[in-house]
Design brief:
The protein is mainly alpha-helical. Helix content is about 65%, strand content about 0%. It has six helices and no strands. The chain is elongated.
Length: about 150
């Protein structure tokens, strides 16, 4: 009689050495593959991979030489750098909008960023008084009003 595999039978897996476990955890943590992809690639259940992630993720971080405090410090520095870039870009957009008179940010940026740029523009106008970004004085219109017909 031929032995048929039943769908309810537990699947057997081969043992995996520590080096492979650490490789899988590292690939998942770096974003090279997902847990599902690793499960299929290495023929290991996803629950086992989840267990490896909990157990070995700190070990992988230690091997790469970055502690959690170092990683937090690096991420804070990166946030600070990105905030600077954002402020710089917003300043440029605000200056261009003041020069051209066209509101680019309202059309193409999320509302929160557009509001921040609008605030920067208002602050610029307050700082410079009635001068624009180029340093030119904004004068009221010099068009002469129509002469009064009643005057003779």
């Amino acid at each position: 009689m031929k032995h048929e595999k039943q769908h309810w039978q537990k699947k057997s897996y081969q043992k995996v050495n520590l080096e492979t476990k650490l490789l899988v955890v590292d690939q998942i943590l770096t974003g090279d593959i997902s847990s599902n992809q690793a499960s299929k690639k290495y023929d290991v259940p996803r629950t086992t991979i989840s267990y490896w992630l909990r157990k070995y993720s700190t070990l992988v971080q230690q091997n790469t030489g970055m502690s959690k405090n170092d990683e937090i410090k690096r991420l804070k520095e990166r946030i600070e750098e990105l905030e600077f870039q954002k402020d710089f870009q917003q300043d440029i957009i605000a200056d261009m909008e003041l020069i051209t008179g066209v509101d680019l940010s309202k059309k193409s940026l999320p509302k929160t960023l557009a509001k921040e740029i609008e605030k920067k523009k208002k602050d610029r106008l307050k700082e410079n008084g009635s001068t624009d970004v180029l340093g030119l004085v904004n004068k009221p219109s010099t068009k002469e009003s129509k002469p009064n017909k009643n005057k003779k």
